[in-house]
Amino acid sequence: MALNKALIGNRISELRKKRGLSQQLLSEMVDISLSSMSYIETGTKGMSLETFVAMANALNVSADELLLDVLTNTVRVSNHAFASLLSDASEYEKRVMLDVAASTKTALRKHKAYLLNHK
Fold first, then answer.
1. What is the DSSP code string of 42-91?
2. Can you say whether the dihedral through the CA atoms of 31, 35, 38, 39 is positive or negative?
3. What percent of the chain has pLDDT over 70?
4. Which of 26, 71, 73, 111 has minimal CB crowding within 10 Å?
């Protein structure tokens, strides 16, 4: 199975922007050129393991968070993402998000047969 560099690059780009970092700053933090940073984010080129680890450290995420879109077992990452989402939410926001998530889960399961029959 080929590694989808575009999905990893897109994830890096999303995390970089979420942290308010420019490509220039992140490239300096991981000691690569700006053009290499651009190639990585667009999936044009891959990166060494050393660069990957430096990228995870610079973005303050785990390696599996960077690989989220290409891994098949993402339970721990998803749980961490949900916990992070809730970490700064008020009690009101948590209750609303829980209601929305529960309703979404119910609707997804209710209509699952439709998805399976219309591929």
1. HTSS---HHHHHHHHHHHT--HHHHTGGG-S--HHHHHHHHHHHHHT--H
2. negative
3. 97
4. 73
